[in-house]
């Protein structure tokens, strides 16, 4: 019955994600029931194309992360920190928004945990939101919010101290623009799916570093160091 519920949730996520961009998937190392994982994460978005003639977005985000194993197969994720946003190209002018609040939440489901063959499969949902500082440009007050919604499926293989992982994601990256506090516009992404490649490297029994890259829907790189207890 538990597996039926898990696969039902996975199917629902994938269907819902059709209209859904790319936060980090956080890989396949998730805490078991009653355990925690905490650490620092940096997410750099080098380029994310927007639909139509609205150019692209860049962003640099820094987070404190905390994950908790509700069950052996379910982990809740949260993060809080700060980030910036740069709008460039297209019909609107280049605008650099300085650092402001950033945060996110989500969950991951352990689909497969094959200890004998050192193979894991994890699916999950992630949402992050960056609220950089407003900017005055040519007499106009310009505000921006950058939202990422995503579902992902990743698989990993342990090779010594390294866990290499790859996967896919369906995503929606929405740039919200507002001028002079009245003209609010949504700028949807040009692409809605992408690929994930990365690896976790074990430093000690409870500590690992992670590097994760994303392609197609965006070009980005996420890295971090984490401690499990």
What topology does this entry show?
Layout: H1 2-16, E1 36-49, E2 56-71, E3 74-88, E4 95-114, E5 119-131, E6 135-137, E7 140-159, E8 162-179, E9 183-187, E10 193-202, E11 207-215, E12 219-228
Antiparallel strand pairs: 1-2, 1-12, 2-3, 3-4, 4-5, 5-7, 6-7, 7-8, 8-9, 8-10, 10-11, 11-12
| Strand proportion | over 45%
CATH topology: Lipocalin
- CA-CA gap between termini: 29 Å
Reading the helices and strands in chain order gives HEEEEEEEEEEEE
Helix count equals 1
CATH architectural grouping? Beta Barrel
Q: Helix- and strand-based class?
A: mainly beta
- Counted up, domains total 1
Q: What would the principal axes of the Cα set say about the shape? A: elongated
Which CATH first-tier class would you pick?
Mainly Beta
Task: Provide the helix percentage.
Answer: under 10%
Any idea what the radius of gyration is?
Answer: 18 Å
Mean pLDDT: 90
Give the neighbour order of strands across the main sheet.
1-2-3-4-5-7-8-10-11-12
């Amino acid at each position: 019955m538990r597996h039926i519920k898990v696969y039902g949730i996975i199917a629902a996520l994938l269907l819902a994600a059709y209209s859904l961009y790319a936060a980090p998937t956080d890989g396949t190392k998730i805490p078991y029931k009653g355990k925690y994982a905490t650490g620092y994460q940096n997410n750099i978005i080098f380029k994310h194309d927007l639909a139509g003639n609205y150019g692209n977005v860049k962003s640099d985000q820094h987070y404190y992360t905390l994950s908790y194993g509700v069950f052996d197969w379910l982990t809740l994720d949260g993060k809080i920190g700060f980030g910036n946003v740069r709008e460039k190209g297209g019909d609107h002018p280049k605008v650099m928004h300085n650092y402001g609040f950033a945060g996110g939440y989500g969950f991951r489901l352990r689909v497969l945990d094959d200890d004998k063959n050192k193979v894991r499969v994890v699916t999950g949902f992630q949402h992050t939101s960056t609220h950089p500082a407003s900017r005055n440009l040519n007499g106009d007050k310009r505000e921006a919010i950058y939202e990422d919604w995503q579902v992902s499926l990743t698989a990993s293989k342990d090779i010594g101290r390294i866990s290499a992982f790859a996967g896919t994601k369906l995503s929606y990256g929405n740039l919200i623009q507002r001028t002079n506090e009245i003209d609010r516009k949504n700028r949807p992404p040009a692409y809605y799916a992408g690929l994930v490649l990365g690896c976790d490297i074990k430093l000690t029994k409870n500590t690992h570093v992670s590097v994760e890259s994303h392609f197609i829907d965006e070009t980005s790189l996420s890295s971090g160091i984490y401690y499990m207890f």
